[in-house]
Amino acid sequence: PGSYLRRAWSMAVYRGALYAGSLPQGKVMRRCTGAVVTHDHPLPAGWHHLAVARGNTELTIHLDGRIVARSSIPGALDLNTPAPLHIGGAAIGHAFRGAMRDVRFYTRQLTPEEIRELASR
After folding, report:
1. What global pTM score does this model have?
2. What is the CA 53 to chain-centroid distance, rounded?
3. Rounded CA gap, 100 and 45, in Å?
4. Which of 3, 16, 59, 99 is the one with CA 20 to 30 A from 67?
């Protein structure tokens, strides 16, 4: 009695948000903190060009030169952190398994046209 959430019966991440089905209420709750963008689909076999761009108001994922996911940035996004950067990390069993080559970081947001050009090389 008086508790907000007694038990999360099932949980899943979709489009950067955590969803939990609760008991005994039977409600689905959504929680999202920070700025997250996900592409919740398996990649076809073979090499692909993948780019993530952070603008002033949104994050976008580009797959082979086209935008496949976007997410709004809630307020100011401060990327200054002492935590290490992890690429391909995820929950147990869901981390990236494959090879990466030609990994680049830019000090500015690339335009969609620039990303398409890089993907076509």
Report:
1. 0.65
2. 11
3. 14
4. 99
Query: By C-alpha distance, which of 12, 9, 11 is closest to 26?
Result: 9
Q: Which of 27, 101, 111, 100 is nearest to 65 (CA)?
A: 111
Q: How far apart are CA 32 and CA 36, in angstroms?
A: 8
pLDDT at 73: 76
**Residue showing tokens 């797959």:** 63
Residue pair 35/77 in contact by the 8 Å Cβ criterion = yes
Structural tokens at position 45: 């076999």
Residue 68: DSSP 8-state = E
19 backbone dihedrals φ, ψ, rounded to 5°: -110, 135
In the chain, which residues have pLDDT < 70?
A: 1-6, 15-16, 24, 32-35, 75-79, 89-94
User: What is the dihedral sign for C-alpha 34, 82, 91, 58?
Assistant: positive
Q: What is the pLDDT of residue 75?
A: 67
CA distances (Å), origin 107, targets 46, 53, 54, 104, 110? 29, 11, 10, 10, 9
